[in-house]
Write a structure and sequence with these properties.
- The protein contains twelve helices and four strands, in the order E-H-E-E-H-E-H-H-H-H-H-H-H-H-H-H.
- The chain is mostly helical and 249 residues long.
- The protein has a four-stranded mixed β-sheet.
- Helix 1 packs across helix 2 and helix 6 crosses helix 8.
- It starts with 7 loop residues before the first strand and ends in a 12-residue tail after the last helix.
- The model has no long low-confidence stretch (mean pLDDT 86).
Amino acid sequence: MAMENKVMTTNDYKQFKFFDGNAKIKSAKVAKIIQSIKKYGQINVVVINQYGEVIDGQHRVHACMALGIPIRYIIRHTDNDTLVDMVRDINSVQKNWTNKDIGYALSVRSENTADYKKYLQLIDLGVSHSTAIEACSYLSSGEEQIRNSYFDFRNGKLEIPDSVYEKVRGQILMLKNSKIDKKIWNRIYFIRGLLKLRRQQDFDVYKFVENFDKFPHQWKNAYTVEENIKSIISVHNYKNRNKAKYYIS
């Protein structure tokens, strides 16, 4: 371990290995780093483990390779069992990773890989992280020992039962296939309001979507949960004999 943490330089790009569980390479990020390196050189070193696997700096490696310049790096000895956890923690703290990056890493290596794969499938429908998590939380109400909070997500404890996944997927597809602007329905306050109303017997979510398609002018801009509930109720009740009452929490 004499070489650990000593800054070294190499042109041997084959020395650097990329592994499943790390974030996927983003070409736009590599392009930005290339421009930065052209101006200032490689300021931050790449960190690899004793096997050459990149712990921190895979985008820097690709940028240096594209420029054809030597890579500055250090070696940090790691335990294979904690490699992905280390990479995830480093990038979460430094805010280098998006929630989707974290979800991808945990879908590869965690105790709940199947649950994180379901999460990614929901995200791939075009919804935000908050929308997916909030919908899972609300629609899993009544299920025992379910973990789907923001804290659970980041700590590898996310649980999305198949029944909850199907409900959330159906909810998203219904909104996605409607004429409701995505800027309206893919917001956390709208989702919270709609899911609260779905618990009321006098509220019919399908009638709301149908009415919105017919009478979009009835929608009023909303920026809080309460405002969204009012707007949803207004659209739902327009020319509808079966009126829903205003939700009181």
